[in-house]
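Response to reviewer comment R2.3. The reviewers asked that we include at least one raw input/output pair. We reproduce the pair for Exocyst complex component 3-like here without editing.
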Amino acid sequence: MTDKSKRKKVKIRPGIPWGKNGKPLPENNQEGGVHEEDQHDKASAQTTLNTHEEQQSVKEITLQELAELLQVTPDDISVSPGTSEDGSCCAVPHSGQENQQSVVRLVKRSVNQHFPKPPAELEKNLQQHLLEVETVVQTQLERLASRITCKELMGCLLDCYHRQTIDHLHGLLQNISTSKNSFMLLNWVQHTYLIIISRDLPAAASPQRVDHIKYVDLILFTEWVTKAKDKLLENVQKDVRASLEEILQNERSQEGGDSDEAFIQLNVDSIQCINAMYKSAETVSKTLSDRVQEVCFQELLLFVKRYTTEQTEILRNQTQKAEPDMKLFLKTLQNCEALKQHVQTKSNDSKTSLPDDTVNVLEEMKDIHLKSYFKSKNEHFSMLVDEVKMSFLKLMWCQDVQERVMDEVYKLITELYFKHLVQSKQSKLKKCWSSDVWQKVTDDAELLHSTISDMAFGVQQWNRMLLKITELLKCNDTDGLKLEVASMQQMGITKREDLELLLRWKGLSKQQVREVMEALPDHQPTPRPVSWYNSLMWRRLRSTED
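Raw output as returned:
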């Protein structure tokens, strides 16, 4: 830059109004009337010019003075490669095209010179780097706002810093590979950067206020957010998958572990893993949190399928032993139940079938492991109850937690016992157990309640359903059955569908079952007296078991 150009005054004044046709609006149209499409623009521009005439004259400075203010040298100004393709930040009106371009180049050079460079180890130092960016952008804008009296020049500065920041964020986005840093970056942009770029600056372009929305291109911002969201979901999926695989590896290495931590570690660690992702996403936005939840459900379903496949094989091998390790069964049961409850709790807003798919896999896993008891001559149930006592006595963190845990275990074992009981033919049970099947059921029910109530006094008496089964089996007249079934329903200890299954398992015909069920107080006849579920179960009960 020549000495002459350095000394040349730059009059920074409000811009000439432009019409919709891309031409300046003439004050005296020498070529004829003003185009109709520009009449509104001309009226608005005239109002603006009148307002400006009432204000102080804008200070004139040389390019040398502007360069000193921006803390750059005015000679041979080069445009930063990080700017837009057309080489312009914003239209700053000046007296002359050459001066206008010189001013824009000075502003770009100042922004590029002051902007922090990414650290060598970005993943480790992202938080510190974002703090540096925040400090520089905020400090420079506040420093210059207190000295620049032209709002167009201040707008150019805002736009250049905005574009430089967005370009910089694109570079950061390409070089981060963890969900933690993805959340950190999005959080910073939403809760820190937007505040910096949009808030009023002290004494900005006095006596006029700068319209930030006019000078900050929000489309650039939204485009970056879209890319950042996609990158974040990709990193979340990768990190959740890796964490769940590590949890599964730990479970394999701790097979047979007796510590309290080993007993609950799988479900606690996996739930903590996906909960951490939910909570991080919620700090950014509810919409993002929903998307993150869907990704977590996808990975959790894959994890559950791998876990249940492996556990099924392990427990199948255990049933072949003379003294199977029932603690493995309990551990698997508890893990499946805890994961199922978590998925059901979190799936209220889910728009996919992933939560249901996951719950179904877990339910199938729980159902597998009492079957062997109803086909074996070994005393598996007493061993199971002993393992419950041994396992949960060591998990007594506090009384209220212990009571809730034991109540759920009690209820779960009772439900599974009933389900597999009615799926087993009485003739087969008599061969495996004894001819007195109902006495065996009574003994099991009393043993289960005695054991669990000793550990947690306040648990519900979930074994009442099993005890009523004995009374139902002993009753042989229709009127007596009606009373027994009505009593079970009134006590609320079993579902209506289960009552029908129980009557069929006892050996009643379809007509007899219908007669008993129709006697219930709340009976509501349906076009199909037997549901598809009951029909399927009835066929299974009557089929020959291998």
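Residues 4-58, 77-95, 525-546 have pLDDT under 50 and may be disordered. Residues 3-216 form one domain. Further pairs are available on request from the corresponding author.
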